[in-house]
């Protein structure tokens, strides 16, 4: 796990050093540079495999091909054997070297042979061509900027901003998507002119220009077989994904929530390894809050881990600027405030940590997937009946219709894209019109979310209804909010994060599963049917019996304690420098939250979305924090 960067089009050794060193947290163990005519490469290393070797930039035997590589290749040993049989000579035991020789042997098709999490850049000195790529599901980031023959790339946006020509300006088109989803969908970033290479994409840069293409596409291929067959196959695919991610020359730990996903990952991990293992979990100081500490401790005892706990306290808001400095883009930070401290705790004990993220998407355990199945059933009814039921659901109180039928009835006459946005948006179009000032409304409200949703569903148009929603989640939410931010938060503490349940092989396999096993029936108990059947022997009864519980910070309690004052201060600072948000709308939102006696997550999420943007704007647009830590 590392930080990489480069410059194409001119030479500037001081610039490449500045770009590289601002990413020191991504690789405190080593740094390296390579120069050619009109090319600079920079590298920071967090040593995980082949601790003595593995220095980068790395080259082939004759120095005609150079690489800077971030990530891990899980099948590098098999790939090395294949390449050695074809005559390639290896000088190290690093997985990076297998990528160089695979490129020599197969060209751009080397990507089809790589199983891993990665972002890399290869300089082919003979072709005078730069070749860049990201892994299939988007675990490792890669950003770029180009203008008038100059091309810059890096693992982090801050490195690009080290070049004076890259001015930190707000990308208003990205703001539209951010206010809807709480994150910025690729290829846009919140910085004008800076782009993210999408997952499963590659690009070349040379004298002829820039060419970008997709090299992998998720497909639906529903299989047939017995329930027992799919249970056995699911177990084997999860087991393989976990085993692959145990490759390391340094100690490994695991995030343990006490839920199904992380507990199952730990169970399969223990099948393959009995070495001492550290586990990490978080809790909250406030009474009556979300707390999985007892469940995590029970799993830790079952699998004999060296267990560590961290209690998150309300005063964490003082660190919000540090967290957003590492996230680099405005991101509603409800999850990542806690994960920031969890990564900090883990790094005191290990260099590599596994997580259970990805199980919900792979095995369709969110309630919105049950909603989709229920809605699909309503589509079998005649159109007049659907319209009648939908109108009744809108007029009657919830107790007059079963709550589980409220949403599908209301959505019965809407398109798939409309329903997707309704379920996933923190603000709809009307709410955005209220909160955005008149001054920037024409720049911000550009139907970006609708265009993105249409793009996702167009790519999966031939999929079953449920799998179309899952595809959209992989293409949007999971890639940009979950995986991208997980990388940034772990790397903030020089910690490598691995996500077994986001293995591209597991994702591909999940789109072969019969839908009646993914979501069994129409009750909530059917959401985890196949998944639980497949992992139940890894979990004690109390964990199996637990109802699914979403992760929540005690933000309402924090709001009453300090968040309100903090938010009002930040909004005031933003207003003093630019008129982006409507004062009355923001004040009304704050007052609504203050008046709440119970938790209303959507209102708090709106506030945190606006607050994160205000803090980001203060850091990067006004404060120049890309030049150094806040």
Automatic annotation (TrEMBL):
Gene Ontology cellular-component terms for this entry are: cytosol
InterPro entries assigned to the protein according to its UniProt record, in alphabetical order: Asn_synth_AEB, Asn_synthase, ASN_synthetase/amidase, AsnB_N, GATase_2_dom, Ntn_hydrolases_N, Rossmann-like_a/b/a_fold
- Record field: catalytic activity: L-aspartate + L-glutamine + ATP + H2O = L-asparagine + L-glutamate + AMP + diphosphate + H(+)
Which residues does the Swiss-Prot or TrEMBL record annotate as the active site? 2 (for gatase activity)
List of residues binding L-glutamine? 95
- CDD domains assigned: Asn_synthase_B_C (cd01991), AsnB (cd00712)
Which Enzyme Commission number(s) are on file for it?
6.3.5.4
Q: Which residues form the Glutamine amidotransferase type-2 domain?
A: 2-208
Q: Pfam family of this protein, just one?
A: GATase_7
* Highest taxon listed in the record's lineage: Archaea
Q: Does the keyword Nucleotide-binding apply?
A: yes
Name the GO terms of the biological process aspect: asparagine biosynthetic process
Q: Does the keyword Ligase apply?
A: yes
Q: Which family does it belong to?
A: Belongs to the asparagine synthetase family.
Descriptive protein name:
Putative asparagine synthetase [glutamine-hydrolyzing]
Originating gene: asnB
